[in-house]
Amino acid sequence: MQFSVKVSNYQKNTMLNICDVELLGKQISQDELNMKISESYYGEKLVDTEEAKSLLKNSSIINMVGKKVISLSIELGIGSENGIKTISDVPFLIVFKI
Prior knowledge:
It contains three helices and eight strands; from the N terminus they run ββββαβαβαββ. The chain is α+β, with helices and mostly antiparallel strands. The chain has one domain (2-96): uncharacterized conserved protein from methanopyrus kandleri fold like (2-Layer Sandwich), CATH 3.30.1860.10.
């Protein structure tokens, strides 16, 4: 499996934006909600599952979009199924580790 990621620093925290690779560049909408899964936000590089796991474990702020990456994060104990929101059958989850 591959994921598209962008890693940056935000107020001394590591911020990870990660999505299922097939969602990169897509626009999703539902009712008044619109979300563009842009290359500028999620598309710095492609990583495999092992690197994605490492990034998920070592990041403080995580923005994730897609069934595969969210399943992987839940499997690792990062985030909660209760926090998952969905737009047009595409799940997204934001996690802040304290």
